[in-house]
Here is the input.
Amino acid sequence: MATISDVARVAGVSVSTVSYAINGSRPISEATRLRVFAAMDALSYQPHAMARGLASKRSRILGLHFPMEDRGLGFTELEFVVGAADTAFAGGYHLILSPLMSEQPRELLQLTQQGLVDGVILMEVLQDDPRVEALRALRFPFAMIGRCADNRGIDYVDTDFESTMSDAVCYLAALGHTSLAYITQSHQTFDSGYGPVVRTCATFTQTLLQHDIAGAIYFCGASAADGNAILRTIFEEQPAVTALLAMNDRALVGIVQGLDDLGYSLPADISLVTLVSSMRIGELFRPPVTTFAVPSSEMARLGVELLIDRLENPAHPIRQLLIPCTMVDQGSAAAPAHMHVVRV
Amino acid sequence: MATISDVARVAGVSVSTVSYAINGSRPISEATRLRVFAAMDALSYQPHAMARGLASKRSRILGLHFPMEDRGLGFTELEFVVGAADTAFAGGYHLILSPLMSEQPRELLQLTQQGLVDGVILMEVLQDDPRVEALRALRFPFAMIGRCADNRGIDYVDTDFESTMSDAVCYLAALGHTSLAYITQSHQTFDSGYGPVVRTCATFTQTLLQHDIAGAIYFCGASAADGNAILRTIFEEQPAVTALLAMNDRALVGIVQGLDDLGYSLPADISLVTLVSSMRIGELFRPPVTTFAVPSSEMARLGVELLIDRLENPAHPIRQLLIPCTMVDQGSAAAPAHMHVVRV
DNA sequence: TGGCTCCGTCGAAACGCTTCGATGCTCTCC
DNA sequence: GGAGAGCATCGAAGCGTTTCGACGGAGCCA
Here is the structure.
């Protein structure tokens, strides 16, 4: 409840001097600074965020924008949100959530035009994202967790889907697999241009060619039932398959169950790895599933840092970071069955 | 970028008239209102949040405070956060996250004293929570998702742990079980006075007495390994056990695995239900686990509504809501084995 | 027709901070 | 010893709203 002028009075200096002492925006003698700080905590003074924001035209609030659709929520999302809030806080910012159901930039514009947030972080970025257009047109500061087709002039941090997929395929190829199935997300997701799906599909195909092995992509909805169903499709269309790659956390249960139902055991009869999942997902199964784990917290941290840096040093060069997933071997992948046979 | 005085000029009225037209805080003639609104969207005017907050002393921002400790993050937490943000937005508010690692009220005070938030929502409330003391002393508006020992004068919404536990025990008793084990969270959690654990333990014991059946409580850490370990302890200490109740999502995997390892199958050899979990948890297993599911989104919504109502109608009576979990029967509980034998 | 009330509108004073220009002071150098 | 530079500090003008008191005009009743 104490205001800056109370502090000034107690410290015996002017209001502006207090302001300079707090913000360091002009040199202040050590003696004065000490008196000011003493007065501040005598009064347990807290600068008023709104007043500060109004005068300085900087709210020190960041917006986190993640549209939520049918993909739904998993562990990763929460890790992102929490990581982002933490980092923002550490940097002296606050984080506002705008979990808008649609991707329409309208409400986003509202948020930015109200002077509430200094910048926004975009999650779940599409290849061709209307939010990006809008923000760009407004010249409003933002950073992305994810990336789109044209990323010129945009700071972002994203999972390195290309290298992750390539790592995964190489890993399985090295184990001796020659017929892979990649279970990704829904066809609509692909068509909407959702980067993770688009990129991994491209890299999957490409890497297969490089290794000269067979494989196919299967689109799969976000439920256990979908996972279960796709499994049957796979075995029908591609009976020789020996290893499965999945990037669909919500269908994974169905896949694991389905394998068990069909009498396949991991990794003796078939290999399975999950891509771009939270560490915690793979642990949920029995046996646990080898995971190419997405470093959610780190990405969130980097995303926020990118944005804060942009706000505070607009002249810094653009930074675009790709973080590969790290493999956590949980034993659900091994050499294919025929290899065992050969060995015998 | 347009300000209220631009709008006033274009509409040919005074600044205060525009303000009244926007906020409805004084009667304005229909003709004038129309001109004002026309001017507003001609200029695509957005009121400046900081200026408004400063002048009105209401930021229209809510703080969501959830300390995160070893219990870690699950589906429920995210559902809370998202539900809260949605409801806040619908009510014309924004939601700020303060995921502070500690329960120390210091940073909370900072948040409130900066005039940044109009009110806060407390999650993960302890029986005797320092945050509650602090907020009370400040006469700062808040609502809780959860409750503490002394809830006088506090709006809250909480899971009805008592009725949920009692429902669960009754359900199992009705199936014919006479020896139960309740696997709850860690002993430290209990000792720290965490409401959900304290209350369910009390009710468990009480309900056993009412039904005159046997049972014991087992404290269990928040990992699959802990779940696995506790299972062995249970079978040693209570060999006659036929049904397990668990309120520990992170240990649940270990429990389910452990049962399988020991050759018990659900529900033929033993029954299992999980309490106060997200709907999504039970579905993750095979067979799925019968869940007394916590209505996270609804609770979040109610919590936010409680707070907003308190802010806008301070005179309204205090509301304290208990929401029972609803059972989702997934088939992991059935009559105990000896009953089958009897039938044969 | 004069005196009321009531309605719609206006002007100006906050709200608590930042920031710009100005001012005095001390120190240095010819 | 006086001009010049540099440092620490001050006063005041904003920032874009809300809100309070006031005011003019219309409508009513006596």
In short: Residues 83 and 297 of chain A are 5 Å apart (CA to CA). Residues 13-17, 20, 26-29, 32, 51, 53-57, 115 of chain A lie near DNA strand D (CB under 10 Å from a C1').
